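Before the break, one more example. Copy the sequence into your notebook; we will annotate it together after we see the structure.
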Amino acid sequence: MRHTEFNKAAAITSLVLMGLINSSTAQTDTISVFFDHNEDVRFEAKPIDDRSADLIQMKGIMVIGHTDHLGSDAYNEALSFRRAESVARYLMSQGVSKRNLSVIRGDGELPSPSSNSTGYGMHRRVDVIIQPLMPSVKTPVPPRPLPVEPMPASTEDAFEIDTVSKANIVLDGLSFIGGRHFPTQESIPVLEKLLETMKKYPTLEIEIQGHICCEYEAFDGLDADAGTMNLSENRAKYVYKYLIQEGISEHRMTYIGKGSSDPKIFPERTELDRQANRRVELKITKF
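Here is what the structure looks like once it is written out:
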């Protein structure tokens, strides 16, 4: 059984959702995507793709992960959260603003089917919940606060720029899941550091260059998410869209896919070599 605290949190969440549904004639709109057993990365994205135009315009989107009853409570709660994170990253890659994802949560296992295992697959899912729009209520406008000088970005949180040679910025630690244009979870702090760099140097303009490993017969590789042969370009595009979503002007950036034409390590003998080549570098075009 799950911990008492988790059960209380789930009960409170259910009551909140019921309150949202009952307080409006509109119903919550749920899009579900499904995962294979123990899978937390790959899923069939078509239900999201079919509604991407709607999702981009929505606020307060909830992304809730689930699992079947197999495995321990701790394992299932972690697995459900990783599934929710994968779907949240995919939503952002399709243009949904990070600010519009109000909840990204794993709720662990759903109750097991009463009769047999045929229903287990329905529990290995993530629900993308679009909350109904509530009637607008006019509230008094508070007095405008006095202007506050923005805090400068910490130098420790930004990459140092070689303004003389303008050498490429190698985003050490930013790597991608094999065959996909999503970065690994460990890469998120590197993206945040890049964001701080763009804030620290407001005149900096860059070309975002995507790279792949392993594929030397063709120029570029197959993107398992998009089903297209432009994996390196989609990796660069992911970084480009991330920065735009965080407020960096698109006029300061371009992106390009370089395929496997410029490997960091060659030949690739280990998985670490291959992971090092699944990367993004930045070319300084203006400073």
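The chain has two domains: 8-130, 155-286. The helical segments are 4-22, 46-50, 52-56, 73-93, 120-123, 188-200, 231-245, 271-277. Try to locate both features in your own notes.
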